[in-house]
Amino acid sequence: MMKTIRNNSLIILCLLLSSMVFSRGNYEDLGKSLKRKNIVDLTIGGTGLIVSANYSRIISIKSNYFIDASVGIGSVPYSGGISLPHQLTFNFGKQSSFWELGIGGSYWSGKSNASAYTETINSYQISPIIGWRKNFKNNLIYRVYANPLIRISGEHYIEDFSIVPYLGVSLGYIF
Question: In the CATH scheme, what architecture does the domain 27-174 have?
Answer without folding.
Answer: Beta Barrel (2.40)
